[in-house]
Amino acid sequence: MRKRTFHEAYTETLYDIYHNPEFFNSPRGQKSREQLNYHLTLENPIERVTYLSSRKTNIVFNFAEVLWYLSGSNDLDFISYYNKKMPSYSMNKKTLTGTAYGPKIFEFGNAKLNQWNRIKNLLTQEDIDSKRAFIQIFDASELFVSENIDVSCTIGLQFFVREGELYMSSVMRANDAFRGMISDLFSFTFMQELMARELRLEVGEYFHNAGSIHIYDSDHEWAKTVLEEAENHHDIPEFEFPKMPEGNNWPSIETVLKYEELLRKDHISMTKNDIEMLDLPDYWKQILFLFSIYQHIAYKRDMDHSLFQSLLPIYQFFVRNKWFHYFSIEQKEEIQ
User: Fold this and answer.
1) DSSP letters for 109-122
2) pLDDT of residue 238
3) Are 154 and 138 in contact (CB under 8 A)?
4) Is 28 buried (19+), middle (13-18) or exposed (0-12) by CB count in 10 A?
5) Using one digit for the tens of pLDDT, what is the confidence trace for 119-163?
6) GO terms for biological process (predicted)?
7) Pick the CATH number of 2-232 from 3.40.50.150, 3.20.20.150, 3.30.572.10, 3.90.1800.10
8) Which partner for 208 in 40, 80, 223, 250 could form a disulfide, CB atoms 3.0-4.6 Å apart?
9) Residue 37: left if φ>0, alpha if ψ -120 to 50, beta else—which one?
């Protein structure tokens, strides 16, 4: 499959798996419909979101998850603040193993190898045409841990510099077409763009490969509703997803992570002026606006609507769609 944007790819992928499964099976007792050997080419990886209202994309979680990866953390408290289901994947209720890609990327194995820096050096100082720029995520040892419920879905990420553009290919052993694909594509293409900016290259195509792509029966009715929306409503909001600033974004990421932790732990609150005064590009300030809005939601406080008004229209769309009643006149409460 070749599509220009993820919105187009998500709709068609969901339709195909839902209506044309190759297999019906029950891995780990969870009934699902499945296809094998799925491949997608995304021509514009920066357009990494779907606008289907009934799907209720959680843009805050999308940014939180990829920043969790980039922080190198496997801390359950970090990501479970944004997704209350995450503790069910942790064996010790403190950390995550397979789902936490950050330690795999930045401290892989006993030698704690920084694969990100190795790939960057390989593509800039050694061999720009290299076919070895591969970041390993899945570790065979994960399969040898008794009753491990958190085995990495992603095998690895491969980067290619070709004709002034950075292409990236992900390889997954399995991908949930309804849920996981949304956050995985967001995170992987975000990392592709981050590396491209760091290498001062244009963002090339993104290739997504999954051994098994599936929809669980527990999501059958919701997926049906989303597909009905896609069939009956063809108008896509005319948004353009923001582009990351050129150059080295790591100082900005470190600043965002510092304030993210303070907000998450409720050590501070931030006003519109607090965020605007930070020495950050607007791209990264927008993410802090999102995290500050979510702090009000997570701690069930009255919303500071000046934060919402400071968001770009694309982010306003997602926040309002996900937490509609928080931003209605009649009622200010989170949709559960």
Assistant:
1) TTTTB-HHHHHHHI
2) 85
3) yes
4) exposed
5) 999 999 999 999 999 999 999 999 998 778 899 999 999 999 999
6) dTMP biosynthetic process; methylation
7) 3.30.572.10
8) 40
9) left
